User: What shape does this take?
Amino acid sequence: MGTNGSTMLEPLRQGLPPIDATSVSSSASCALPARYEAVRGARQFTSATLAQWDLSERFDDVALVVSELVTNALRHALPTDPPARENPHDSPVRLHLMRWASRLVCAVRDPSPDSPATRECEEDFAAESGRGLFLVETFSDSWGWHPLAGTLRGKVVWALFRLPEPPAPARPTAGPAA
Assistant: This one.
């Protein structure tokens, strides 16, 4: 999973129900450019990853949440005048997808230390924007965020989806005694 993946999991373990990091069966990550076209790329990455993990039936809900998390990172977490990057592959926003047997976590890392903010009053729901975290809360089983520690700056906003338990293997039936 690499250093960034391990760094990602540490705060996720603090905010989620107990998860054994060694039981992560699959993980995938992609860097996203600081442009709104990144949302389409994040959806395509999510579609391909879920198909690879045989979870395509979850695409609609997961893609909606991924779209909202990435849009929020692009809209609210990037500096208005970003510094020039030495490495063009060092993107300020990254999407991480992690799968356990019964859970899927979508996490978006961004450079802002600021808490994601939800809209408080009802009339805000008529607005064209500002409903992102409401949608994340509605379509995922839980969500949260953590500031990053160590050399990484910013935060991780995550959403968890519970997956159906895989069917138990069929037990052989005892045949007639000979």
About this structure: Residues 1-8, 11-18, 84-89, 121-128 have pLDDT under 50 and may be disordered. The chain has four helices and five strands. Residues 97 and 106 are 5 Å apart (CA to CA). The longest strand covers residues 103-110.
